[in-house]
Hints:
By secondary structure, the chain is an alpha/beta fold. 32% of the residues lie in helices and 21% in strands.
Amino acid sequence: MHWRRLKAEILAHGGARPEGVPDRWRDRSTAGPGARGPGSYFFATDAGRVRVAVNPDSPLSLKVADDGTAVITGPDMQVKGWLEKVALHCPRQAYITLSEGCIFGCRYCAVPSGPGRYKTADDVETLVRTVLDRIDAISITSGVLGSVAADEARALVVVERVMQFGIPVGVSIYPTRETPRRLHDLGVAEVKFNVETATADLFAEMCPGLEYELIWEVLRESVALFGRNRVFSNVILGLGETDDEMAACIRRLTEMGVIPVIRPLTPAAGVAHLPRPGADRILHIADIQEEALAQAGLDPSQARTMCSACTGCDLVPGVDL
Ligand code: SF4
C-alpha cells in the first residue's frame, strides 16, 4: 500500500488506539484539530508524517518500542515507522496559540471553550527559548479574545518579538483588512487565512459573525505582498459540501496563488454528529488539489512554516506520495 493511501486511512479513522505508548510522546495541544482532545502522536516513515490522534474507537492500534520505533496495525494494514518528538505542538516548530479562547463560536472548533487567557510576548519568548535548538520555524495562531482588532494588536507585538530569532515566522489569525500589510512590514515569511468551508452558505452556517468575503479579500492582498507559495488557507473537508463545491473552492484558491490546506473534519464541538470523510474521498479530493496546484504552478513542499510544513493533519500533494 502506498504511503498516501496509508495516511488517508489513518486520517479517516481519526487516529489510533495507543497500546502502552509512554506519555512523553504525546502532544496535548490547544490548537489544531485535536485542540482540547485526548492528545496525539506524530508518526513518521521515510515517506512522510502523520498526526495520529488518540482515538479509543479506531480499528487501528499504535505500538511503540523503547527506542521510539513504532508500528500502526489495523485491518489490511501494517506500517512501520517511528514517533517524532514534538517541539511546541508539532515536530520542528514552535507553533503557539496566543489566545486560548474565542469570542466567536465556529461550530467545528473547540477553541471557544478554552480557558480564555492569552500569551504575552514575554510568555512566547520564554516558550520559544525552551525549544530553540530543535525548531526550524515559529508559527503563531490565535483565537479571538476581546475584539478582532485587539487580538491582532497583541499578535503583532508577539510577532515583532519573535523576529529576533532569525528563523521563518508564519502567522494564521483572523484578520482585519490591514493584517497582511502589517505582518509583511514585520518580516513575516508566510500567512494562512482560513476560508474554512467550501461555500459561502456553509460558512454562514458554521461561522456566525465571521466574514467569508473578507478572508478572500485578505488572501488576494496577501499573495500580492508575500508571493506565491507563501499564502495558505484551510478548508475543512466533510462539513456537508459536495465534491464539486470543494473542487470549485480549491480552484478559486489556487487561481489566486493560494495553497489550499484540505483538512479532513474532526467531528467535535458542534459538529460531533457528522461522519469523518472516508479515505477514498480524502484521496479523490487530494487528486483534484494536486491537479489544481500543478495548473497554477504552486508547490506546498516549499512551505517553511505552519501546517504545510508540518503536514501532520492533511494529505499534502507533492509531499505525501
Ligand atoms: S498540520 Fe497543522 S494543525 Fe496539524 S499538527 Fe501540524 S501544525 Fe498542527
